[in-house]
């Protein structure tokens, strides 16, 4: 984050330029926010390893991490760039995922099967959102495990783009199933940090 802020400092007019940031973070009650989705992904990875699709090392490295910063970590990073930026505003607020409102609207007057289908559609959005960010790191770990040799005899060797895509789709499908099994009907809150910085 420090490198990012210094690079933006090189690009933004001094003095008087402004940088506005908003990004997901860890909240004080992170268990409530990310835990269900994190558990679903972990279980998808574990089941894929048990079925021989994924190397154990990939699961250990990537099976339980969302990679979000704490407010304290953001303050620490900003302290390191105080020669470039002044903090004009910093706050943290939980935002309800907008897809949850669509789910609630779909439930009005709907039967139980329709409500379930609507929640699965909402949960699919969450899974797709997470894998959109996570997939490059996951593929890097899978390729590394393939090059180093599998620790559990897994066919980690997705030998091309199609095989890698198929593996990611399997993981998404499993993650979705585990998430819906545990969280059916639950809202999904995303804690955000909002920062406004002034260029010195």
TrEMBL record:
The keyword Translocase does not apply. InterPro entries: MeTrfase_capping, SAM-dependent_MTases_sf. It comes from the Eukaryota. Keywords: Methyltransferase, Transferase. Gene3D superfamilies: Methyltransferase, alpha-helical capping domain, Vaccinia Virus protein VP39. GO terms for molecular function: methyltransferase activity. One of its GO terms (biological process) is methylation. The keyword Phosphoprotein does not apply. This is Putative sam dependent carboxyl methyltransferase family protein. The lineage of its organism: Eukaryota, Fungi, Dikarya, Ascomycota, Pezizomycotina.
